[in-house]
């Protein structure tokens, strides 16, 4: 929305202005059972396993490399698939400061798709955390959450 340097340059086209005719809706049903798994070279299976098996966890934000890539390790994809099959939502978010996750563009992200991981598109980590907490607290099904994660609800992403 802005570039900060000596001066701040605002990109007005990125700013989402609210509809003044819409009544403010305060969200009170929030579920905080969300965690972040930041990938790094040399990450161990025990680290990944521990995060994916946090008691009560419902969603994981997977901070991946580049356009949404992950290490090509069979155990890694198996851990993700098992978590996904247990009903844990796993959202792929690039660690890059700009750009978007392109699920299936490269082999490693295709393996993520096969493991049940869904795209976080170009959302910031903070936006995905807030969105997940609201959706987990308000939505009645994973299908509804998955759908709402793929669309912009309040200007948090440029896709959808």
UniProtKB/TrEMBL annotation:
* Keyword Isomerase annotated: no
Q: Which UniProt keywords apply?
A: Hydrolase
User: Which N-terminal residues, if any, form the signal peptide?
Assistant: none
Q: What is its EC number?
A: 3.5.1.1
Q: Where is the Asparaginase/glutaminase C-terminal domain positioned along the sequence?
A: 33-147
Reply yes or no: does the keyword Methyltransferase apply. no
From the Swiss-Prot or TrEMBL record, what is one GO molecular function term? asparaginase activity
Query: An example of a Gene Ontology BP annotation on this entry?
Result: aspartate family amino acid metabolic process
Output the PANTHER family linked to this UniProt entry: 60 KDA LYSOPHOSPHOLIPASE, L-ASPARAGINASE
> Mind telling me what this protein is named?
asparaginase
To which species is this protein native?
bioreactor metagenome
């Amino acid at each position: 929305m802005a570039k900060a340097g000596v001066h701040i340059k605002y990109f007005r086209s990125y700013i989402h202005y609210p509809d003044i005719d819409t009544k403010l809706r305060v969200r009170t049903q929030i579920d905080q059972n969300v965690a972040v798994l930041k990938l790094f070279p040399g990450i161990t299976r025990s680290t990944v396993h521990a995060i994916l098996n946090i008691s009560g966890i419902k969603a994981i934000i997977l901070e991946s490399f580049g356009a949404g890539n992950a290490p090509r390790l069979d155990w890694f994809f198996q851990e993700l698939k098992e978590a996904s099959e247990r009903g844990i939502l796993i959202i792929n978010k690039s660690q890059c400061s700009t750009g978007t996750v392109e699920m299936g563009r490269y082999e490693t992200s295709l393996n993520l798709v096969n493991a049940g991981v869904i795209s976080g598109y170009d959302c910031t980590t903070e936006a995905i955390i807030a969105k997940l907490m609201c959706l987990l607290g308000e939505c009645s099904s994973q299908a509804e959450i998955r759908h709402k994660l793929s669309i912009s609800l309040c200007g948090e992403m440029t896709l959808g």
